[in-house]
């Protein structure tokens, strides 16, 4: 595994986050290849990370042991069609991070025999605080699973699932999840400003509170429900606020939002 080469097809946000995390964990940049249609993007990436770059996806596919497909789901069929003959010949491990794109889709586009790991990371991978769900299709061996775990584990925690459908739920929870927390941060910053705090202070108070709450929840033995109760003095300010959330159907909205994300993930499979 030490010398295996890893190639990213698409040098966007997620691919550069993963590559940056791998390098921060001690993987040599020379083991990493990246392709993208944009020369400017590649110049930026090679300057920042010192990885190999190419505008031609096939140049990358011809060299590597694991191919991380990191283009938008809508691009995946055409990207795979171009890669098909090289993948059939060389049989690299294919790691897909695309939302919704299934193993069956990838087998249709790349060939039946290709070893495939489907993953769902999230953008906190940028700061090595990602959470990734992984599913290994039939035919993936232990060393290939270890390689996939090395790539995704470089940027945070990894969780293996035995059935592929679970990845749609993972997409709706942790893949899209950072956006839900960012929305709450935005709303709380707006509310802070509406209460007369200046914008810079509002932002700092909200972000530090979000970070502190997450740290407390991660390090505490108590669950989020207990931690919430500890903030909520009877008849106090938090109780007044939580009552407004509950009356507005906050929990039901969260359930409905996550269900909508899951449904969209299933639709993206086509
Ligand atoms: N963003 C997120 O939070 C998450 C995203 N994902 C998945 O990761 C994948 C990538 O997302 P993200 O990084 O956000 O998207 P980006 O748009 O940032 O990255 C995709 C990159 O692929 C490039 N590209 C387009 N066409 C091709 C092609 N034919 N060959 C090679 N590269 C190409 C794009 O170039 P150009 O911009 O010029 O089109 C772009 O640089 C998606 O499938 C998404 O579902 C998974 C988990 C979380
Ligand atoms: O919104 C999306 O489709 C992608 C997948 C999960 C997060 N972003």
TrEMBL record:
Q: Where does NADPH bind?
A: 57
The protein's predominant localisation is cytoplasm
Stated EC number for the protein is: 1.5.1.2
> What residues does the Pyrroline-5-carboxylate reductase catalytic N-terminal domain cover?
6-100
State its location(s): Cytoplasm
PROSITE patterns listed in its UniProt record? P5CR (PS00521)
Q: Which GO terms describe its molecular function?
A: pyrroline-5-carboxylate reductase activity
So, what pathway does this thing act in?
Amino-acid biosynthesis; L-proline biosynthesis; L-proline from L-glutamate 5-semialdehyde: step 1/1
Question: Is the rRNA-binding keyword given for this protein?
Answer: no
So what does this thing catalyse?
A: L-proline + NAD(+) = (S)-1-pyrroline-5-carboxylate + NADH + 2 H(+); L-proline + NADP(+) = (S)-1-pyrroline-5-carboxylate + NADPH + 2 H(+)
KW ATP-binding (keyword) present? no
GO annotation, biological process: L-proline biosynthetic process
Write the record's keywords in alphabetical order, separated by commas. Amino-acid biosynthesis, Cytoplasm, NADP, Oxidoreductase, Proline biosynthesis
Q: Provide the residue positions that the database annotates as binding NADP(+).
A: 9-14
Q: Kindly state one GO CC term assigned in the UniProt record.
A: cytoplasm
Residues forming the Pyrroline-5-carboxylate reductase dimerisation domain are 164-268
Which family does the similarity line name?
Belongs to the pyrroline-5-carboxylate reductase family.
What is this protein for, i.e. what is its function?
Answer: Catalyzes the reduction of 1-pyrroline-5-carboxylate (PCA) to L-proline.
Could you tell me what this protein is called? Pyrroline-5-carboxylate reductase
Q: Which organism is it from?
A: Alcanivorax dieselolei (strain DSM 16502 / CGMCC 1.3690 / MCCC 1A00001 / B-5) (Alloalcanivorax dieselolei)
């Amino acid at each position: 595994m030490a010398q295996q080469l890893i190639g990213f097809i698409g040098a966007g946000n997620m691919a550069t986050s993963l590559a940056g995390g791998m390098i921060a964990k001690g993987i040599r940049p020379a083991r990493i290849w990246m392709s993208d249609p944009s020369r400017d993007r590649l110049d930026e990436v090679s300057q920042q990370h010192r990885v190999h770059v190419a505008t031609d996806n096939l140049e990358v596919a011809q060299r590597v042991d694991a191919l991380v497909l990191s283009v938008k789901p809508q691009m995946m069929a055409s990207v795979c069609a171009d890669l098909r003959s090289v993948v059939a010949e060389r049989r690299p491990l294919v790691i897909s991070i695309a939302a919704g794109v299934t193993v069956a889709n990838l087998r249709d586009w790349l060939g039946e025999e290709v070893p495939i790991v489907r993953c769902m990371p999230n953008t906190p991978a940028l700061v090595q605080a990602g959470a990734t769900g992984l599913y290994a299709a039939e035919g993936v061996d232990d060393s290939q699973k270890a390689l996939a775990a090395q790539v995704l584990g470089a940027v945070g925690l990894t969780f293996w699932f035995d059935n592929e459908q679970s990845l749609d739920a993972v997409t709706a929870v942790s893949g899209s999840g950072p956006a839900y927390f960012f929305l709450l941060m935005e709303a709380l910053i707006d509310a802070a400003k509406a209460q007369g705090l200046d914008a810079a202070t509002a932002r700092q108070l909200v972000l530090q509170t979000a970070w502190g709450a997450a740290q407390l929840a991660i390090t505490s033995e108590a669950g989020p429900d207990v931690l919430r109760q500890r903030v909520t003095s009877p008849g106090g300010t938090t109780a007044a606020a939580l009552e407004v959330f509950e009356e507005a159907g906050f929990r039901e909205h969260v359930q409905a939002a996550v269900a909508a994300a899951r449904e969209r993930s299933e639709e993206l499979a086509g």
